[in-house]
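ESCALATION

Customer reports they have been waiting on this structure for their group meeting. Please prioritize. Original submission:
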Amino acid sequence: MPPAPKEPFFVNGNNWDCIYDPGRPEGLLYAYNAGHEIGSHTWSHSDLATLTFDQVHNEMWLVELAMQKILGVSPALMRPPYGSYNDNVLNVAAMRNQSLVMWDFDSGDSVGATVAQSQQYYSNIANQHPSNILTLNHETYQTTVQQVLPYALQVLGNAGYSFVTVSQCLGVPAYKASGSTYSPGTRDSTWHC
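Update from on-call: job pushed to the front of the queue and completed.
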């Protein structure tokens, strides 16, 4: 079986918790330092296709600012909540120099699929053997992390798939700016939602 890839994490700023809450910056820094790609999933997980240009821009900018403060980088990858986007979102993303990332396979964890169901979905897609698979999973579910993903890696690896990062798959950089432009910051009064 091929080695497990570095997973991409698409983070919100202020959805189910605040990106600046105690422990969250440290968790992001740990994942980043371990080689995982960190991308934007917008500030509040709003349906971007229903927002104005300025609102979409703000949703993306607030996460970018948080990542500059916490990690010292700016994301070049953004996954729109619900997979919902329109020309307005594409225009903002282009202006912000961010690539939209969409999945073509959903494990179903965010809509209540059981571990067995998610595992069966992975078996089904492996048996169909499309040329590539960009999967959607949520690390906020421990069963996904501890049971579904190990199973998925085994099934897909046994089916001959190679594992790459999202930026490698898309042929784009994961970050707009390197640590030489920004430095991870120290918590101050601006670290709040």
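Sent to customer with the following note: The mean pLDDT is 89.
Escalation resolved.
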